Amino acid sequence: MADTLLDIEPGLARLAPAVGAQLRGLRTPLHERILETVRAAMRAQGRSLTGGQGRGLALGVRTAVDAFVDAVAEPARDLAATRAVFHELGRTEYREGHRVDALRAVLTLGGREIWAFLVAHTTAAGPAPTDLYVVAGALFGYVDALAGAAAEGYLDEQRDAAQDWATTRRRLITLLVQPQPPADAALRAAADAARWPLPRTVAVLSVDGDDAEHLGRTIGGGAIATVIDDVVRIVLPDPDLPGRLDRARQALTGRRAALGPSVALGRARLSYRISGRALALRRDGVLPADPVVGDEHLLTLVLRWEPGLADHLADACLTPLAGLRPAARRALAETLHGWLRRQGQVVAVAEDLHTHPQTVRYRMRRLRDLFGTDLDDPDRRLVLHLALRHRLGEGRDREGAAAR
What we know:
Pfam families: HTH_30, PucR-like_N. The chain has about 400 residues and is an alpha+beta fold.
């Protein structure tokens, strides 16, 4: 908005002082005329001038009229205070849930009424028509400037509200996924602040990117989202409702993403951690497809949850194979892995490995020499199975990553 009315209409500098004095004399009837016009316009919008918003608009009308008639008399008069009033009215319009163009429409109508009033009260003694045209240019430029200040206020409030909502949602999501489950009272308070009805179950999505607000809105269904550790985290309420996960998958088409399991609200951290780890493994090329569904890769997640731990497990458990040549080590490892998977069914193992059953039997004799009673202990067999799955899968992962 311009600093003065003279900035809006330089011709005001040539007006006779009597013009300004005449307008000042019309101040009180102008108030009444414009307030009545604004009341009628508000009623047409289904609103009234009662309550806080109504009092604010009434103040705005008086301020606008007073500032205008005083500025015609003193064109260099600062309009900052008037600009601040309409900037705050724009903020109030947003908070009250109205459209910014509703206030603009009222301002435009008020400007026309001021002009009609001035024309009706022009006497033969003045002001001259040329002076009236200058006043008209100042008036309608002034109305546009006030509308601009209101629009700025509206947009400022909208931006601040968006930032407040983002902060509120982030606080709620952080509370849900913290290491210790939050107290019921704290969780209810955070959910109330975010206007988020507490669901019985949730699932957490982790998505590469920083467009949390857009993704939460696109997925819908009450999803809330924020960015934590440079990853978008989306909390999806009641994920098992029909169609809810399907819509989430559609919204994530073409995005690198991972879905944690559906869990009770108090266990949201588990879903959060699984989705986050699955996303990290997806980035590394270990897990395929987008979005990765964590529940479909739990064994891989367990083996790779703590970096380096599965490697240590494999090194420790497969020490008997360490002294063999690479080809022999690989052949025996694949045979033992197949034997454990097939629960000792030699023929099935041979079919899986595309070799002769006698070859499998020969290799198993060698493996018994190497591992001894470990092959008869259920717990040791489980550990060997995990170690072999990791070690043999590691080679496949490297080959797959190279191919990709």
